[in-house]
Amino acid sequence: MPFEFANEEPLSRVKVYVRLRPVQKPSPMIHVDDETGTVIVDVLKSSGGGPPRSTIEQSAFTVDDIIRTTNQQRAFEHCAKEYTDEFLNGYNATIMAFGQVGAGKTYTMAGDTKIHVHRGFIQRAIGQVMEEKRAHPEAGIVVYMSYLEIYEERMYDLLQQRSTDLMIIEENGLIDIRGLAKIRVETEAQAIKWFNEGEKQRSYGQHLLNQQSSRSHTFFTLYMERRVGRFHTEHDTIVAKLTLVDLAGAERLKKTNVERGGRMRKEACTINKSISYLETAIYALRVGQNYVPFRQGKASTLLKESLGGNCKTMIMICLWLEDCFYDETVNSLRFAQKVKFLKTYPFRNKKLDCATATKRRHLQQIANLQQEVALKDALQGRPGLSFDDLT
Ligand SMILES: Nc1ncnc2c1ncn2[C@@H]1O[C@H](COP(=O)(O)OP(=O)(O)OP(=O)(O)O)[C@@H](O)[C@H]1O
């Protein structure tokens, strides 16, 4: 569906929250300051020369806020509701969970599908959107949903019984998935039923750190179209999508103790590789490289818009502060530190007439070609060409 990008919108910063899984024995080397939203980590440094000695230095990681509550409604209202509001207002939004295995990503996004009070951000976002649809019949809100899994770098449609050939396509600069079912939903109950069916199809495994460990990345997306303004012409229609992402956790093979040569070890290696592709892309964005290697992995390709394009994005970093996970905690905090400086360019998406849509498409094609030239220059070690602004 062609739509317009209004260009007076300001930049938006990716917001980063930390959520702490309740722990028995928190690490004495990690200190949490709720007031300032800072996690301080003691780092042992050996000093050179003379008899071996170690000193303790501290690294501080500040995020937008730290969430300790196990109460899902409070966590949703504090961190995710505003992104669902933005979506209903015509902005693309992404809510994403990141962290080591067992840290609470799936608990945050999907929660416990059998216990109503423990339902996650996905079901709560569905509830909020469907309530808006019910409360504003004059807006003619139309909602679709899709549920995608990336397992071993292959994509599966969780809303269809049999797997189909899904393919990532880029059209008008926008990433989409050919073959992915988008199901129209009329009520909250209907949407939750579809979601629960999709959950049953997900790939889970059991290892030392998690009885029910997700072995894949999942992307749950709501699509909305609604009329705004007094006169309901096509120009008054806004469209947006809200994506809730549950990334599989990077894992240390020694700690999960998965069998050498077994299926779970292979899954873990693929997950670790895809997380490292994502980190590489984030690094390139952060330092402003001309070419950002999103396309190395499926998850990073699909997150292109969320991390640097037309989207308002929030990332929940889930931490498990047990002493034995010190290294994993520091890695997750380093990730938080990188993403919190990312900028996105969100626009309120309006449906367009045909001529404007064609002009936009051509401009986008030029921008894509310029990117390809930049990539070729980078690969051949030539200084980059510069281009005038597109008009
Ligand atoms: N904030 C929390 N409050 C209460 N329980 C939690 C919280 N976070 C995690 N848990 C519990 O910890 C366990 C592991 O959580 P979860 O499966 O969500 O981890 P994960 O990060 O998705 O792990 P994986 O990457 O292995 O899938 C679950 O039993 C979950 O209920």
Structural commentary:
This protein has 391 residues and is an alpha+beta fold. It has a single domain (3-24, 65-380), classed as Kinesin (3-Layer(aba) Sandwich). Helix content is 33%, strand content 29%. It is built from ten helices and 20 strands. The chain has helices at 72-88, 105-109, 121-135, 188-200, 253-256, 263-286, 298-302, 304-308, 326-339, 354-380; strands at 3-5, 12-13, 15-20, 30-33, 38-47, 53-62, 65-67, 93-99, 142-151, 154-157, 167-171, 174-178, 183-185, 204-207, 210-214, 217-227, 237-246, 312-319, 343-344, 349-351. Strands 3, 7, 8, 9, 10, 13, 16, 17 and 18 form a nine-stranded mixed beta sheet that branches. The protein has a three-stranded antiparallel beta sheet with strand order 4-5-6. Strands 1-20 form a two-stranded antiparallel sheet. A hairpin with a 2-residue loop joins strand 11 (167-171) and strand 12. Bound molecules: adenosine-5'-triphosphate. Adenosine-5'-triphosphate (ATP) binds next to helix 2 and strand 15.
What's the quick description here?
The chain has 391 residues and is of the alpha+beta class.
Beta-strand portion reads 25-35%
**Structural domains: how many:** 1
List the secondary-structure elements in sequence, H or E.
EEEEEEEHEHHEEEEEHEEEEHHHHEHEEH
Q: In the CATH hierarchy, what is the class?
A: Alpha Beta
